[in-house]
Amino acid sequence: MSKVYWPLYEVFVRSKQGLSHRHVGSLHAAMIKWRWRMPAMPTPPQRRLLIWVVKASEIVASQPEDRGEFFDRRKAKSTVIRLSIPCRTAWNICEAAMNNPNPVATYALRLGDNGLVLASVLGAWCGHAPELEIDLALANIGLDLLGQARNFLSYAAELNGCGDEDTLAFGRDERQFSNLLLVEQPNGNFADTIARQFFIDVWHVALFSRLVNSRDAQLAAIALKG
């Protein structure tokens, strides 16, 4: 009797809204055909998991120097799905960033994580806010936070001497982020979101008003712009 070899699939899970997918394991199966059924009782959003299953043969780990292919289809050599997260090079760079003894690099990384996570969480309101004007306002706040995050993460990567803001943003799992716990709290209802944003904004005003006088010229410039 001949052996039957089932294809290998990789499984990724996003455990919380606003976080990236994390590789949790592999499995062999004849086919992937998920049947989603509505539960008898509604499941709270904070308890839901987003599962992504991809055939292993269709995954290629990219290198940092291949960034151009992600943004320009004309440069792409194939239509194979590329993932930056499983890349071992990116993982090593992120490990170096987390263990960097330079306090300025660590500080910039933490501030960048705050903006990155909060921008992602606010983005979940897009298309779901009470009014169109509020929807656009929250999206713009998220874009501003994302811009701040890019500046801080770029500086952290520069101090590390390797990688860039994309490597730090996409090359880590959720346990490697050093953001404030407040920014990753669920959106809840609209009042919850506004209350969270109020506390963050008050903290930002106090932080940046002092950071503009920092002895580090780059941190001062980012704070002045923010």
Automatic annotation (TrEMBL):
What InterPro entries is this protein classified in?
Aromatic_CoA_ox/epox, Ferritin-like, Ferritin-like_SF, PaaA_PaaC, PaaB, PaaB_sf, PaaC
Q: Please, which domain of life does this record's source organism belong to?
A: Bacteria
Any one GO biological process: phenylacetate catabolic process
Query: What GO cellular component entries does it have?
Result: cytosol
SUPFAM superfamilies reported for this sequence: Ferritin-like
- Short name of one Pfam family for this protein? PaaB
What PANTHER family does the entry give?
A: 1,2-PHENYLACETYL-COA EPOXIDASE, SUBUNIT C, PHENYLACETIC ACID DEGRADATION PROTEIN PAA
Stored NCBIfam families = PA_CoA_Oxy3
- According to UniProt, the name of this protein is Phenylacetate-CoA oxygenase, PaaI subunit
Kindly list the organism's lineage.
Bacteria, Pseudomonadati, Pseudomonadota, Gammaproteobacteria, Enterobacterales
